[in-house]
Amino acid sequence: MLTDSFSGSIIPSLYYLLVMVVLASFITIKFAKTQRKIIKATLILNIISFAILIYPSVNITYHELARKKEIKSSELSFSQPLQTLNPIRPDIYYIVPDSYASNSTLKNYFDFDNSEFTDYLKSKGFYVAENSKANYPFTTPSLTSSLNMGYLDVVAEQMGVNSQDQTPLFRLTEDNQVVLYLKSLGYKYYHFGPRQLPTSLNKNADFNYTYANNQLAFSPLAGLLLEQTLFSYMVSSVDCAYVNSVLCIGSLNNRRSHYNYILDQIVKVEDTAGMDGPKFIFYHNLLTHVPYVFTVNGKYVSRAVEASRDWKENYINQLKFTNKILKQLIETILRDSKNPPIIVLQSDEGPYPERFRSGRDNFEWKEATKDELKEKFGILNAYYLPGVETKDLNAGISPVNTFRIILDKYFGGQLPLLEDMSFAQTRYANSYDIFNVTNSLR
To answer: What is the H or E stretch that residue 223 is in?
Structure first.
């Protein structure tokens, strides 16, 4: 689950938008009555833009002040420091299809047999962990844990169960142990993320993917104006079943732009295969995540068509397309890489149970049924580890141990494996109020 743009606001966004509409109307009428032909639209837009900036500025200031009170440290501790013993330096692909379910979840809760895809992976030399579970139920804590090779007990204790500030997790995701270690060995870091936090960009990356096509060009202030007013909502509500509408061009429409973004991004990931290494490619995609904009064959799905179908049907259709795209990507990587690469294909979380989907913020995970927990925590987890023994892998291995194994097998890092455990949080917003659900998933 990715962060919403208005999450945690201290000013209700709807009230704010209504105020902006009234203000814009008032200014427009006022100047229309004057004889000055050109004090100009520039002045009007500048006034409106200044008013718009008040909202994010107040929220940013509020959250920064609150954060300074709480954060003491954002470091995870390890039992042993990493060591480097004559490392082999293969390219490493960490591919994270968000919300991709395990085979058992798909069979038991979606009535879908995904064995054709996992059999394909096995035929290519992947080890598929058939019983793997996510360590945490949502993107931010899950990726923070896997990329730092540890559980989040220390951060949770420091922040306290009542904190809803995810900034320490964002920082740990960005300055994660895996990236910093690999860069110290001379690796280039290619970052491909979605457009939302926590993985949209990474300051440590040598390359950050950004989507650029023949979009209409807007200045930053004009772009902010569009995003923060009702106009943005109205434009994004256009169905875009027909792409020749001006409202469906480029970034004007979020749904069509999301579709274009995903297709363009995976092409750019494929392009990295032939580049000189060593390199680390982080690819977090929304191929199996809402909104469901793909047919089985990759055609665009309008909002109206998505709404007319059961959400599980939409999910499976998009998953089938995802399988095709991932096969194509894997074939390209294996064919074009100059040295045999490491490939980790691993979801950060499973799909959302129906009760959670209907009331995300108020859903109590301590009241979740065993079936709901299994549906949420079962994930795809597959490893391509050329040239090394895979006896340390097992059907239940979880993401927290992924890079402990890789750094041990290929770089001599002496990090022992941790017990594979899963933790839920009481509510969606309470990232630090966590409890162990490992036994409930057995």
So the answer is: helix 220-227
Distances (CA, A) of 439 to 188, 332, 347, 373, 424: 40, 40, 21, 11, 12
Count other Cβ atoms within 10 Å, centred on residue 360: 14
Task: List b or e across 366-380, with b for residues whose CB sees 16 or more CB atoms inside 10 angstroms.
Answer: eebeeebbbbbbbbb
| Secondary structure class of 124 (helix, strand, coil) | coil
Please write the tens of the pLDDT for every residue from 209-264: 988 754 444 444 554 455 445 555 555 556 666 555 555 655 556 788 889 999 99
What domains can be seen in the chain, in order of their start residue?
1-70 (no CATH), 75-441 (3.40.720.10)
Q: Which one-letter DSSP state was computed for residue 83?
A: -
Residues 6+ positions from 209 with CB-CB distance below 8 Å: 190, 191, 192, 193, 265, 268
CA max distance for the chain = 82
Q: Is the pTM of this model over 0.90?
A: no
What is the end-to-end Cα distance of the chain in Å, rounded? 24
Q: What is the pLDDT of residues 21-41, one digit of tens each?
A: 666 666 666 666 665 555 555
User: What's the CA gap between 71 and 165, in Å, rounded?
Assistant: 10
Q: Is 165 helix (H, G, I), strand (E, B) or coil?
A: coil
CA atoms within 13 Å, Cβ hemisphere of 353: 19
CA angle at residue 145 from 140 to 146, to 5 degrees? 105
Radius of gyration of the chain (CA): 23
Give me 345's structure tokens: 């294909």
Angle in degrees, 0-180, between the axes of helices 311-336 and 254-271, rounded to the nearest 10: 20
Identity (one letter) of the amino acid at 35? Q
- Reduce the DSSP state of residue 79 to 3 states and report it: coil
CB 395 within 8 A of CB 442: no
How do strand 207-208 and strand 92-97 relate by DSSP bridges?
unpaired
How many CB atoms within 10 Å of residue 403? 24
Strand 92-97: give its sheet, edge to edge.
Answer: 127-128, 381-384, 342-346, 92-97, 279-285, 188-192, 207-208
